Amino acid sequence: MTLEPPVDRRKRRTHTAVLDAAQVLFLREGYRGTTIDMLAAEADVAVSSIYANFREGKADVYAALAWRIATLHAAAMSAPIGAASTPRGEVAAVCDRYVAFHRENPLALRILALTDIDVGESELATEAKVRIDAVLGGLVESSATAVRLANCDVEPHALVMVSWATVNGAYSLFQRGIVGESTLAAMLAIARADLLSHVGDDHEA
Question: What is the tens place of the pLDDT at every residue in 110-151?
Fold first, then answer.
C-alpha cells in the first residue's frame, strides 16, 4: 500500500473515488462521524474494495487524502520565484496563492496536520506525516525566499510563519462560524497588508 494512486486502472479509479468521498464526508461529518460504510456508499464501491486499497481502513484513507491535499497545496504554490514583475508583487502573489488554496480547500487546515488520527494507527499515516512535513517545509522555504528578495525588514521565515498563522486562524474562525464572510475578508486583507508592510515598496500589488 502506498500514498500514491495505484498503477492499475481499476484500482486507481477506486482509490480516487474513495478519496473524493472522504473529502466530502470528513468535511461534512468529521473523521469520527464518518464510517467505512458511509465512505463505500458515497464512493459507490464495496467495503471490501476500500480495504483492498487501504489496508488499515479509514486511517489509511485519511493519510492518503492528506497526502493528496499536500500535493495540491504544493502545486497551487508552485509558480516560480520571479514570475511576478517585481519582488513586492512576488510576495503579494505568494500570499494570494496561499489564501486562495485554503479558501478552495477548507479541509486542508485540519487534515494536513493529521489532527484526527494517531500516526501510529497506520504505516501510511507515519509516511504521510514525514512527506507532508517535507512539502510544507519546502513551501516555507520558497515563500521566505520571495520575502528575502523583496528586502524584508524582519526575519523572512518568521514573517512567513506569522502570515500563514494569521490566515489559518482567520479561516479557522470562519469555519467554526465565529466570524462571517465580511469579517473574514477584512482579516485576510489586514494579514496581506501587514505582510507587505515588511517588504520593499515598489508600488506593485
Answer: 999 999 998 888 899 999 999 999 999 999 999 999 999 999
- Annotate 76-131 with DSSP letters as a single string: HT-SPTT-SSSHHHHHHHHHHHHHHHHHH-TTHHHHTTTTTS-GGG-HHHHHHHHH
Cell numbers for 87, please give them: 519582488
- Grid cell at residue 175: 469555519
Q: Give the C-alpha separation, 102 to 112, whole Å.
A: 11
Q: Distance between CA atoms of 34 and 205, rounded to whole angstroms?
A: 43
Sign of the alpha-carbon dihedral angle for 47, 48, 54, 59? positive
- Report the 10 Å Cβ neighbour count for 172: 14
What one-character-per-residue DSSP string does 169-191 give?
Answer: HHHHHHHTTSS-HHHHHHHHHHH
Task: Express each pLDDT in 23-82 by its tens digit.
Answer: 999 999 999 999 999 999 999 999 999 999 999 999 999 999 999 999 999 999 986 655
159, three cell numbers: 514573517
Total residue count of the chain as it appears in this document: 205
Instruction: Tell me the C-alpha distance between 107 and 4, whole Å.
Output: 19
